[in-house]
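Here is one chain, start to finish.
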Amino acid sequence: MRNIEPTGIGGFRKDFESLFGRRLADPNEEVRGSWLRSLAEHHLDPDRVRDPDVLSYSELVEHRAPVEELSALCLPEIDRLLHRVMEHAEVVMLSDAQGVVIQYRSTASSVNKYTGLRVLPGSIWTEDRQGTNGVGLCLREQRPLSVVQDEHFSSKLASLSCAVAPIFGSQGRLMGVLNVTSMQSAGGAVQSMIRELVTSSARRIENQHFERLHPHSRVLRLSRYNDFLDGAAEARIAIDDSGRIIDATPFARKLLDPGDSAPVLDELVGRKLATLSGLFDLERAMQGNGHTARSKEGGLHFRLTESAARRTARGNFSKQASTLENPKFGSAPRLAQGPSLRDIVGTDPQTEERLKIAVRLHAKCLPLLLQGESGVGKTQLARALHLSGPHSAGNFVAINCAAIPHDLIESELFGYRPGAFTGAAKQGSPGRLIAANGGTLFLDEIGDMPLALQGRLLQVLSEGEFVPVGGVEPVNVRFSLITASLSDLPTLVREGKFREDLYFRIHGASLHLPPLRERKDRARLIEDAFWAAASQAGQQVCELSAQAMDVLMKHRWPGNMRELQHVAKFALAVSDTSVIDLSCLPSALGNQETAAPWRSESTTRELQADKISAALVKQNWNVSLTAKGLGMSRATLHRRIIDFALKRPNQIP
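Its structure:
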């Protein structure tokens, strides 16, 4: 097919109508608009669209990191969705907000067919690259829809039918797209049914993720049905102790007031429940322990929930404060599931001492700077510090300064008033600093923050207030600040790329996280990562073969803990047994030049047994000291003692 050049509006329209008419008899408006953009804006040819680019394994690991929690959270729902649609479809995928497939499930019989079309983990499905397709169109329209067979712009994709639905995160921001893809011909009724299933799954994921985002807030569940049996029919609102809204799912807007005057999501945030025009007596019903409030559409049922983390935080707050004043390492309460401070930092005495100082300073709301390679766990450590500190009842707000375009960082951080700039949402935006008020703000890659914006941040840290973009009245905020950087900030200061006064302000204390390859306890970390992956997959047992452990111990781990976690999930996904051997590991690990020499299983076991036995004798069979010296957990050491049938010298076999 020849390229279609817009020689004139009339001529272009004529060529477009001719092409479009040959492929589609009665297109919907969204598909028609997408085809127009594919031709006129993206300059694509339906018969010459390139195959989708596919990220390498390491690139996918890095790309998936910002949405790791969502990626892991959605796996059970993706598996259930594939089971439900298996008669009519073969693939379920989750793409992130950049159109990259970050989770992928398919039926065994369809793998080769979809591989030929490069429908794979890591493939990129934006409209500017592939023309009209389900993921790309959903990213633009941000609502559930279908793209069926010839509605795809690329001729290669005309055999596919896709049903997609968006997944929204904090403050209503689009986080990803859930997609069911099929090569089977199906009528409109089946397509509609699949789209409804995808939409329901997306909303369930959205609600679960919302509750993870607000573990220390009261969460209001809203539904038109009083049984609350289906999470897909519910909306979520997070409120503070004064009844003020701090976040809400987009579906909450529709339930609260489906009329034309409905407040948009950003207008809900910051308001008291009693001020919402569409919900007359919710607060009164809450105070009277009722279950239903009147709205413009009739009865609206609700349940006010409080997480275990919030209850624990309230109950242990005073105990927490005293613990942090006189910290005995490892004694701070664990307020939420996740790695402890010791799990993240390790057992190096110097690092432990620096962590004690960091915990004390964070408890006093003094800034902390975390440093280390990508993937070492800086975000996890920041979250663990937040949960152990006096601001744990507030939000943990993480922003990657390197992942946001420079012209958007200011409005993302400080928010903006309605009409503040061209293209601004008419309702304005509260910004992330407001979301962090009363909690912890984590600025990752702060070295990439534009120089002009560094001055505004310094003012907030000095005066505790700021003026939103386009505003005139200052807003007061108070939060704990944790920053992180891969860059050498002193060098950036010398080069004039980072303000010296801001550097000294954020450098209350610096904590360096060593890379995984340098950690003495990496054997324990490797085993723990595989056991955690097994637990998430619903497996009770996970054992690493000695040969697999050899390769894992010798691997350089350029992606550090993040790479390790993904390798563990990969191995568990492809393994048919509870034993992880070399065949289960990604091929890139098996080909490492630094990998351990090949040894027989029996020889390796003997070496391990001898090493553990010698360590136990050296420590007079003190299991705790031996485990620490070997870099493994007490539980792992006990398993090894039993597995190798080791006995104390004076113990009768």
